[in-house]
Amino acid sequence: MKNPGTTGIPALLSNLQDNLDSLASAAAAQPPSSHQRRRIDDALRAINTRIDGFLRQLDPIKQPTSMFDPTDPKIIGRFISLAMVAQPVHKLAAVHRFYGSGVYAIYYRGDFSLYTPISATETPIYVGKAGPAITNARTPMDQSDRLARRLEDHHKSILKAVTTLNINDFDCRFLVVQSGYETAAEDYLIHLFKPIWNNETDVLYGLGKHGDDATTRQNKRSPWDTLHPGRAWADKSAADARTPAQIKSDLAKHFAETRIYKHISDVMREFLDELRQA
Fold first, then answer.
1. I need a labelling partner for 28 at 20 to 30 A (CA). Which of 10, 203, 270, 277 fits?
2. What letter would DSSP give residue 42?
3. Read out DSSP for 224-274?
4. pLDDT digit string (tens) for 9-60?
């Protein structure tokens, strides 16, 4: 293609505007289907990215790839997560009541064969949050013992799965957090570790369910309860949401596609890599 030179730029810009106007008129005259809207959306976003890149090239002063905003909830979530990972490890069975809400991670150290890839690593099997007891809670006492109670709930669920799990094989870390920030931290922890027991990972969800009555709700048994039977209310379910074979397949696929953090240094390196600006 020949270089249009500066004299051709106004004409090219005019053509670009005309094409956009024609596209808008055509869409208004004949509204696109959902599939067509997605295609238009993808195409326009791609064009917008190219235009943004072109404008950066035109500017003799280079733009940073990003601006560090310490008030961004995602940034806050990362730093709270780092603080949580820096906390000492406790045996889940030995955690006592304490005041506070916040975030936590549960780690598996046992020999259950399906969990071998993450056993005794820095990749938690589950992460979670516990919100404060009241709105605008400012002190751990205001927050109540929500974090300790959540860990106790998981402790009790694991105890009931006695045929497959041993409570002594579970460790945990936790961090009391200023009210309102626990969600951002949980989101980042799930993003980073993709724990297999978290609902968001969609592999072995169900640990956090509390006493669903299968006879009245007609709920299917969660994958967690299928693999780790013992909770009486879950055992009443007539059917599994996923068969044991499906669960094993899901786990194998997950571990094949997901990074496992074996050492704390791996976690720190990943944290720094995500913060680094090009």
1. 10
2. H
3. HHHHS---HHHHT-SSBSS-HHHHHHHHHHHHHHS----SHHHHHHHHHHH
4. 888 888 889 899 999 999 999 998 888 888 899 999 999 989 988 887 888 8
CB atoms closer than 10 angstroms to residue 185: 26
Measuring CA to CA, which residue among 25, 260, 8 is closest to residue 123? 260
pLDDT of amino acid 97: 96
- DSSP assignment of 98-163, as one string? ----EEEEEEE-S--GGGGGGTTSSS-SEEEEE--SSTT--SHHHH-SHHHHHHHHHHHHHHH-TT
pLDDT in tens, 96-143: 999 999 999 999 999 999 999 999 999 999 999 999 999 889 999 999
**What is the pLDDT, as a whole number, of residue 212?**
54
Answer yes or no: are the C-beta atoms of 196 and 204 closer than 8 Å. yes
CA–CA gap between residue 252 and residue 196 (Å, rounded): 11
How far from the centroid of its chain's Cα atoms is residue 136's Cα?
25
Q: Would you identify the CATH topology of the domain 73-201+260-272?
A: GIY-YIG endonuclease (3.40.1440)
Q: Give CA separation, 95 vs 89, 98, 129, 148, 155, in Å.
A: 10, 9, 16, 7, 9
- Positive or negative: CA dihedral 265, 271, 275, 276: positive
